[in-house]
Amino acid sequence: MAEALIRLLGVTKTYTQPDGYDILVLDDITLEIRPGEFVALLGPSGSGKSTLLRIVTGLVPPSYGVVLYRGRPVVGPNPHAAMVFQSFALYPWLTVQENVELGLVAKGVPASVRRARTRRLIELIGLSGYEDALPKELSGGMRQRVGFARALAVEPELLCMDEPFSALDVLTAENLRSELLDLWRAARIPTRAVLMVTHGIEEAVYMADRIVVLSKNPARIVADLSVRLPHPRNRRAPEFLALVDSVYKIMTGPEEEPAPEEAVATTPEGAPRLEPLPSGHLSMLTGLLELVADRGGRDDLYRLGSELLLEVDDLLPVTEVAELFHLARVEEGDLILTGRGQAFCEADGATRKAMIREELVQLPIFRLILRVLQSKANHSMVKEFFNDILEEHFSVEEAEAQLRTAIYWGRYADLFHYDPETETLYLPRASADAAPGAD
Ligand code: ADP
Ligand code: MG
User: Fold this and answer.
1) How far apart are CA 160 and CA 144, in angstroms?
2) For a Cys staple, 13 with which of 26, 304, 326, 399, CB 3.0–4.6 Å?
3) Which of 6-15, 110-119, 258-267 has the lowest mean pLDDT?
4) Which CATH class name applies to 282-346?
5) Listed residue (175, 95, 174, 191) closest to 134, CA to CA
6) Neighbour-count burial for 380-389, b at 16+ CB within 10 Å, e otherwise
7) What residue's CA is closest to ligand 1, atom 7?
8) According to the model, what pLDDT value does residue 204 have?
């Protein structure tokens, strides 16, 4: 077997929050990529895919573990790897030609070689005639072509791509995918291996020879599959759909039971951990449940997602909400309504709100908010106060997102109100009058 290009051994990454609490993002990742492989790294958003890619390219170091490139430790940016970003990341004041040449300038390649190589690449990637254009004169698809050309200009052995097609419209993305595959498969680029981060299952099955699936909170490798379908792949072929379905099952599979010490994880101050709320929208929850009810109470998540035009990334948080509220459960890639879920679908709007209210008052974040509001004489409290508490449990970004979700859900269920003018949460009259401490 060929020597691995990149080897990650027990790579772990934690980020330390301002309050000293460490968030574990990547947990003990061991992975090898060999010449000839096109590997897709698949995982829900926020799972740590970009972090892993930055570690592979040497842009950030791991907290623990070893990164080897051709057997040598990676220290600092890996000169044999290049990265294509989702957001194009072009310099607006440089022309197409200058943007593509940039990596070569940094490498000290002489001007004449630079020009020739860049011209060739610009032609290869379909941008001839645009050498002197500025990024703002280009469409999104053309900008991403520049992004590819810039990464390829340094002739990287390992081409890393971070959701490179996700900012493009459907048609442009599909064109670029097949063009890139053609270049790679016909060996018209000197790249030896490709590592592509994506949250799209179909994209992974369409392009990659191997799919590595990450879990979330923290990211661990939960599957490593080879894809042996011949190219060009037909998205409607039964084998294609079967593979998409089985990856769906893996991604929606039961979470591992947390180890005992994680289950009682505490902040450094010893306060109990707040369980994060899933980010799914309640409006989508109702739509999803009604669709399943129409199907007799059980249906394939993959089919539900494609009918609701939801990527797995948008669908999973909604199924998590359904499970959290005991309205449905996920089994073998199917979503199954519970008795309560059935009742929810048959209920009127007011009853649905009441059912969600019953669930919310069981959740630590809502218990906390209600306790505070009930203990205050005016039954109100500024949002900032809760933000500060949540920041002891989550990253600043995540605390903000958690509070946004909590406020949205609380308002939906009439558990409390929120005044965006004063950024204040307050209890509705009826529950403010109820005996405090009814918790
Ligand atoms: P993905 O690419 O899968 O969406 P990321 O690798 O971007 O995930 O992020 C994984 C987690 O790590 C997120 O919770 C994110 O907030 C956190 N994170 C990423 N970069 C940093 C950083 N520089 N500091 C603190 N937290 C970070
Ligand atoms: Mg990312």
Assistant:
1) 14
2) 26
3) 258-267
4) mainly alpha
5) 95
6) bbebeebeeb
7) 50
8) 96
Closest ligand 1 atom to residue 163 Cα is 2
Q: How far is the CA of 336 from the centre of ligand 1 (A)?
A: 32
Q: How much distance in Å is there from the Cα of 303 to the middle of ligand 1? A: 30
**Closest ligand 1 atom to 48 CA:** 6
Say how many Å lie between the CA of residue 158 and the centre of ligand 2: 18
pLDDT tens figures, 352-363: 999 999 999 989
Domain 6-252 coded CATH 3.40.50.300: yes
Alpha-helical runs (H) found in 186-328: 201-207, 238-252, 260-263, 282-294, 301-307, 312-324
The pLDDT of residue 434 is 58
For ligand 1, residues with CB inside 6 Å are: 15, 25, 43, 45-51, 395, 397
Instruction: State in Å: Cα 62 to ligand 1 middle.
Output: 13
Ligand nearest to the CA of 14: 1
Q: So where are the chain's domains?
A: 6-252, 282-346, 357-431
Rounded distance from Cα 157 to ligand 2 centre (Å): 22
Give me the torsion for CA of 118, 121, 126, 129, rounded to 10°: 20
Nearest CA to ligand 1 atom 21: 15
Note the pLDDT tens digit of each residue in 14-49: 998 777 778 899 999 999 999 999 999 999 888 999
Half-sphere exposure of 260 (CA within 13 A, CB side): 0
| CA–centroid distance, residue 163 to ligand 1 (Å) | 15
Q: Which of 13, 390, 395 to mutate to test the pocket of ligand 1 (most atoms within 8 A of CB)?
A: 395
pLDDT class for 403, splitting at 50, 70, 90?
very high
H-run or E-run covering 259: none
**What average pLDDT does the chain have?**
88
Same fold, 6-252 and 282-346: no
Q: Which residue is closest in CA terms to ligand 1's atom 14? A: 46
Q: To test the ligand 1 pocket, which listed residue (12, 21, 24, 25) has its Cβ within 8 A of the most ligand atoms?
A: 25
Alpha carbons 229 and 1: distance in angstroms, whole number: 22
Of the listed ranges 18-22, 68-72, 167-171, 234-238, the one predicted with least confidence: 18-22
Q: What is the pLDDT of residue 393?
A: 82
Strand arrangement, sheet containing 81-84: 81-84, 158-162, 193-198, 38-42, 210-214, 221-226
